Amino acid sequence: MLWIGDHESVIKAIYSGSEFLGGAAASNEVGVVLESTRSLILDYLRALLVHFKLAMSKLLVDYERRKFVAPNHTCTHMLNFALREVLGNNVDQKGSIVVPEKLRFDFSHGKPIDPELLGKIESIVNEQIKSELDVFSKEATLAEAKRINGLRAVFGEVYPDPVRVVSIGKQVEDLLADPENEEWSSISTELCGGTHIKNTREAKAFALLSEEGIAKGVRWITAVTSDCAFQAIEMALSLEQEVDGASKMEGSQLEKKVASLKSRVDGASIPAAKKSDLRTKLSVLQNKVRKAQKKIAEENMKKAVKVATEMAEVAASDGKGFCISRVDVGLDAAATIQ
Ligand SMILES: [Zn+2]
User: Fold this and answer.
1) Is the CA virtual torsion 251, 254, 257, 263 positive or negative?
2) Which terms in the GO cellular component ontology are assigned (predicted)?
C-alpha cells in the first residue's frame, strides 16, 4: 500500500491515537480507515500507520511521516520473524506500535530474554537488511493465506477476506503456489495492511534498544532503524571506548569515571545487548575500585596499630599509664578506632 499521488476514497473511521472520533477539523493529524484499504488491520490502525492530515474534504497523505514509518514497520516484521527463530514457535505477537521515531513490539514470553539472545535477534534483522531482500505484498483469500508455512498472524485477530499477505525475500505468488514448502518457515510472512519499504536495505540498520516485561507472560521490545539506529550504535561505540579507557585508570580518577559512566550507560539509548556488555565491564571496574579502597583501609589500619603500639611502648618506658597520639589515616574511622 505505497500510494504515490492523490487518492480518492470514503472515510470509514477516524482515530485520534487513543479513541475513535466522529469527525476531525482541517489540519488535524489523525489516523483513518478508508473504504479502499479494507485490508487494513485494526491493530496497525492503533499503530497510526496510516497517518493523514485532513484538509477541507481532501485527504493529504503525510508522505514525510510515512517515509519514516515504513522502515520501522518492515523491521517489525523482521523482528517478529527473528523472535521465533531465536525463542521458538511459542512467541506470539500481542501488539505493535510503529511511529516515525521507533517501533514497539509486544509478544508472549514468560521470562526476560538473555542479552546474548537479544544480540542474536538484533543481528538476524541486520542480516536481512544487509541481504537487500525485496518486500512483496499481494491479496489472497484468508483460507489460502493461512496455509502458508511459517505465516505469522495475530491470534484472536479478525482478518478481512481477502487478506493482504506481506512476505520478505520471496514472492507471495511463490508461497501461495506451494504453501506447505518447508523453506517458507525461514522467511517472514505476515497478514498485514500496513506501509512497507520496497527492499530491506532501505531500513539501513536496526538497533534493539530494550526488552522488558509489561504483564504476566507478556513482554515488549523497543527498537529503532535507519539514522536512529546508526546514532544508537555510534553512541554505544563511543561509550565502549570510554569504558575501555577507564580500565587503565587508578584510584580516585577511576572511581569518578566509573560512577559517571555507570549513570550514562544506564540512561543511554543504545543496543540492549551492548548495554549489558558495558554494564559487565563496568562492574569489573567497580570491583577494582572496591578492592583498592579496601587495600587503603587495611594499610591505614596497620599504620594506626603500628604507631599506637610504638607510642604505648614509649609511654610505658617513661612510666606513664596512658598516651595520646596523632595518627595520619585521614578520615578512616575503622583505623582510628583501632
Ligand atoms: Zn505489518
Assistant:
1) negative
2) chloroplast; mitochondrion
186: number of Cβ within 10 Å:
12
Highest mean pLDDT among 47-56, 243-252, 309-318: 243-252
| Residue 115 DSSP class | H
Helix (H) or strand (E) holding 34: strand 29-34
Ligand 1 centroid, distance to 177 Cα (angstroms): 22
Q: Are 193 and 41 in contact (CB under 8 A)?
A: yes
Cα R_g (the chain), whole angstroms: 30
* pLDDT tens digit sequence for 85-125: 999 999 999 999 999 999 999 999 999 999 999 999 999 99
| Cα 94 to ligand 1 centroid, rounded to whole Å | 13
Give me ligand 1 centre to Cα 43, in Å: 9
Question: Cell numbers of 72, please?
Answer: 520501522
- Gap from CA of 258 to ligand 1 centroid (Å): 42
Neighbours of 69 (CB within 10 A): 25
Residue 4 CA, ligand 1 centroid: distance in Å = 19
pLDDT surpasses 90 at 1: no
CA of 214 to the centre of ligand 1 (A): 22
Q: Give the Å distances, CA to CA, from 186 to 128, 144, 180, 285.
A: 11, 19, 12, 42
DSSP run (H or E) holding 69? helix 63-87
d(CA 258, CA 276): 15
Q: For residue 239, what are the β-bridge partners?
A: none
